[in-house]
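Human: If only I could read backbone structure tokens as easily as an amino acid sequence. Take your time, and here it is.
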Amino acid sequence: MCDVHNEKKVNNCGCKNHGHSHENHHEEPKKEHKHEHGCGCDHHHEKEHGCGCGHDHEHGGDIEGKEIAKIFLAAVFLVAAIFVGKYAIELSDKFSISLGTVETVSLLLYLISYFTVGGEVVKTAVKNICKGKVFDENFLMALATVGAFFIGEYPEAVAVMMFYQVGEMFQDYAVGKSRKSISALMDIRPEVAYVKLHDGTVVKKEPSEVRIGEIIVVKPGEKVALDGKLAKGEGTIDTMALTGESLPREVFVGDDIISGSISVSGVLEIEVKKEFSQSTVSKILELVENASNKKADSEKFITKFARYYTPVVVVIALLLAVIPPCVEIFGMGGVSTTDVWYKWLYRALSFLVISCPCALVISVPLSFFAGIGGASANGILIKGSTYMEALAKTGVVVFDKTGTLTKGNFKVVNIVPYKTENELKILKSATIAELYSNHPIGLSLKETYKNRALEHSDVLESIEALELKIDSSNFEEISGYGIKAVADGQIIYAGNHKLMDKIGVAYDVCTELGTIVYVAVGHSENDINYIGAIVISDEIKEDAGAAISGLKKMGIDKTVILTGDRKNIAEYVGNNLGVTDIYSELLPGDKVDRLEELLNMATSEKKVAFAGDGINDAPVLARADIGIAMGGLGQDAAIEAADVVIMDDKPSSIVKAIKMAKKTLKIVKQNIVFAIGVKVLVLLLAAVGVASMWYAVFADVGVCVIAILNALRAMKCK
């Protein structure tokens, strides 16, 4: 079963990597995401759409009752004005008043209706003009409707402003609806923490005032304020707001508890491990709050388009009001000057109403916002629209193996002694080497050691005793190979087969399926001997196969595994799942090199996404077009390094994320084509006199409402 190796092999890499196929698990994330807080966590802010018209849309979230009341009141006065105007003669005769008086009453009713619904718009337009913001949406609406009053088109002037406000109301409703899932995340912010003092009393504190090592008490129905470990008690916690998982999770002493989760049953006493500013809930909230800062190319295009578009159409409207009537009056002769000026002024005013790019500048960012909100509800955190757009263009998906496609729940399944060596000695030596490791392989070794120590207390001392006796300074990580430790006067090497080659030790190659930790010990560097190997196995995640097949159904035919694990294990996992390309036994630098090759073959429409555990694969996450961190709960580095965080740790959620991104981008393109197409068509019709101001109302408000409703579809994932 075993061949004897006695060759030296040196393969240096500048990247830190723990040996025996830990797959870069000691890497620190290198990707920087600079966040600028654009708003508070409650999201009650004025959002500049960058439309070039300077229009600020207040996103209040819910339809204000007073806004509905204003529109209703304006509608009542409008109907009254129309009634009085239509039956002016009859009313004059009936009440014995002059016709001029009746018409004046009708005009006053129109004005009351107009200022009820549009007074704020006119006021804002005047203020903006004073500030130098001439070409804004308020200016366009005010100029067009006031102009309509001057040419006697009172009903149309009021109706345009009224429908404009209806459009604004729909917009507020849409933004509020799309923000609901994100608001659900905002609700996870804890307000208080109950701290248990040494004398047993419990005091209420602000979460930011609680320090590491203190004990917080969480009763059923209360939120967990800070990250920590369960020190006392057992029960169930609800993590739905964080992961999208509907079923509560059972927790026991020693389990990690994440801030933002809710206690369902049992009184939990949790030892705080992170300050509030570094807790999971704070990291998630920061991520969500800043998601809108990363603009997609589509949004940038709309911003630039609108910046030039609005002034141009204002100039065209002005020319339309002046040049054609001059040509008609002086070129044709015999025409009514008043009628000509009225005709072309009306067309110019209609042109102004139509020209407002509201549908475009609202619906595009709203589509992305809705998509991000919908993804959040499914436990997928996307850091901004630029990453959602890139995700929609994914053509290649690269996976880390351990913890991404496999569970990362390692178990020691066999200890293989060399010759007459003792199994307990091999286990103890490997455990000492992994004493300060938090990698699943190291944790599995320590867990096995604890169980064996209980059975063989006369031979094996406790983990706690080892930690007290052995200082952490006696450990050296050999990047890509393993660990060197000094303890009890012995030198211990534990790592992959490359480590044994590197130190020139003869060893038996273990062919068992699993991750192999080779162990060698000695009293000096010239006296290192191989003592045996430990076989550690992992399981493939239940939905990993469905994830790969789901990607293929979407047209993503190229799926890749990059792993530091052995070739036979990598091929076993990859072939079972149907992955197209498998690269194994890679050092951290090798992973980046392989990814570079894939990136060089990629196109702008076929981006390369990398899915890893966030902490272990920081260099690759940073280099990929889209970095996807799996199982981001409690992993600060994952949230910082990745562009997308899959909170529920399921590979199938990657499929869902790409599907939602594709749907969102499709909706964005639909809205762009629809809004521009209708605008151009109605603008041309207005210029030649076919489209009245009622057409203008549809082109502005109608298109805006339709685009907004279409944008809301981005929240749903089939």
Notes: DSSP finds 23 helices and 26 strands in the chain.
